[in-house]
């Protein structure tokens, strides 16, 4: 038998071993499960007293809900959607949190040469990725591309100006942003350590020792393929497995290349480890679009970031695993036949 994820979750990408490192420490751990941003949110908060642990988990949940009200591109009443409805060349005030998140997203878009660009909103619509899915004509793809990207927002002095009729989709960074907001809120409320699993993206802080995080097999995500030894930081996975659909006989994935307007090649899965959940989220999407060679090359240039690329041709083909150099001694296969290469 292969190790099975402890908790069945629709979008589970990673799960923790039974004894998280911080469980060995003093203090009280409170566990809480909620639903936010369309997915499950599991929080384990450690603090000196039970009250402080409860309070910090409450603050984490509130911070995630606030991030959803700020960033969601699934609801018309979010702060971001109100900004995006503004006419081109107009500007409006925006919260400090939203300005900081948009600036960070712009930075990752630049650093990845637009492999990551939340300005794919119009493309997501023409492919009907929130519905049944469809293959649009070249003309419709070109029209969607002409609406620009996140670089077309000017963000300064607490105001955002729309320089083009850009439509954003927060799908690739919203969970990471919410996790970072949750951690800040938990620390402020007195948590000394926490483990959060938000729809498969995990985040840990305050751990006394390393723990194992299992990463799902992209061919069959109910089982694990790898075990990663990590401590404080966040692990995010991008793959098509749960949202793969076949439209007119052709597979249509949900990760798009913002430069060509075409779906990214479905390589299998990309898992990123970073000290910050926002970075891990942006980079896992970007690296999926970049493909293994360019992704590994980018990650090797970044401090404190590691990558696992699991490549497979189909659900029945062999799995090839490529690791960044910092993961060489931290990743072990839990499937017998894995071919693991590190750079
Ligand atoms: P993730 O699962 O974090 O990789 O995010 C994927 C989601 O982000 C998709 O479902 C789209 O909503 C959106 N998206 C797709 N491709 C891109 C891209 N290249 N850059 C930014 N967002 C994207
Ligand atoms: Mg992402």
SSE class: alpha+beta
CATH class of the largest domain: Alpha Beta
Widest β-sheet, arrangement of strands: 2-3-7-8-11-14-15-16-18
Number of domains: 3
Q: How far is it from the N-terminal to the C-terminal residue, by CA?
A: 30 Å
Instruction: Give the overall pLDDT as a whole number.
Output: 91
Return residue spans where pLDDT drops below 50 for at least 5 consecutive residues. 1-24
Summed up, the helix count is: 8
Q: Give the DSSP E fraction (strand runs of 2 or more residues).
A: 25-35%
Rg (C-alpha, Å): 20 Å
Oligomeric nature of the chains: single chain
Instruction: Give the H and E element order.
Output: EEEHHEHHHEEHEEEEEEEEHHEEEE
The small molecules bound here are:
adenosine monophosphate, magnesium ion
Overall geometric form: globular
CATH architecture of the largest domain: Roll
Task: Describe this protein's structure.
The protein is of the alpha+beta class and 343 residues long. The chain folds into three domains: 1-73 and 170-206, no CATH class; 79-168, T-fold, CATH 1.10.3980; 209-343, T-fold. Helix content is 28%, strand content 29%. The strands form four sheets. The protein has a nine-stranded mixed beta sheet, covered by helices on one side. Strands 1-9-10-17 form a four-stranded antiparallel beta sheet, with no helix packed on it. The protein has a three-stranded antiparallel beta sheet with strand order 4-6-5, with helices on one face. A hairpin with a 2-residue loop joins strand 7 and strand 8 (201-205). Helix 3 (96-111) packs parallel to helix 7. The site of adenosine monophosphate (AMP) has 17 residues, from helix 7.
């Amino acid at each position: 038998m292969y190790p099975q994820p402890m908790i069945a979750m629709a979008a589970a990408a990673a799960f923790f071993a039974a004894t998280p490192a911080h469980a060995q420490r003093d203090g009280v751990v409170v566990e809480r499960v909620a639903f936010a941003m369309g997915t499950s949110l599991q929080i384990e908060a450690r603090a000196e007293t039970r009250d402080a642990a409860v309070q910090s988990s409450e603050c984490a949940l509130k911070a995630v809900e606030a991030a959803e009200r700020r960033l969601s591109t699934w609801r018309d009443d979010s702060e971001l959607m109100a900004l995006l409805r503004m006419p081109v060349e107009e500007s409006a005030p925006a919260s400090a949190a939203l300005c900081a998140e948009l600036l960070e997203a712009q930075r990752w878009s630049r650093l990845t040469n637009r492999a990551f660009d939340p300005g794919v909103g119009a493309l997501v619509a023409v492919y009907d990725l929130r519905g049944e899915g469809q293959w649009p004509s070249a003309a419709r793809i070109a029209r969607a591309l002409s609406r620009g990207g996140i670089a077309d927002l000017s963000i300064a002095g607490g105001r955002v100006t729309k320089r083009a009729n850009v439509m954003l989709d927060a799908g690739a960074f919203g969970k990471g942003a919410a996790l970072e907001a949750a951690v800040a809120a938990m620390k402020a409320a007195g948590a000394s350590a926490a483990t959060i699993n938000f729809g498969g993206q995990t985040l840990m802080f305050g751990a006394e020792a390393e723990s194992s995080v299992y990463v799902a097999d992209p061919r069959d995500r109910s089982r694990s393929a790898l075990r990663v030894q990590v401590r404080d930081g966040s692990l995010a996975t991008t793959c098509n497995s749960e949202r793969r659909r076949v439209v007119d006989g052709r597979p249509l994935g949900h990760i798009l290349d913002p430069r060509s307007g075409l779906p990214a090649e479905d390589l299998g899965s990309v898992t990123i480890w970073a000290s910050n959940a926002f970075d891990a989220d942006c980079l896992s999407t970007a690296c999926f679009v970049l493909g293994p060679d360019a992704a590994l090359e980018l990650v090797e240039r970044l401090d404190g970031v590691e990558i696992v690329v699991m490549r497979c041709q189909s659900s029945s083909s062999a799995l090839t695993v490529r690791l960044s150099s910092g993961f060489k001694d931290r990743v072990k296969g839990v499937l017998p036949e894995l071919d693991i290469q590190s750079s």
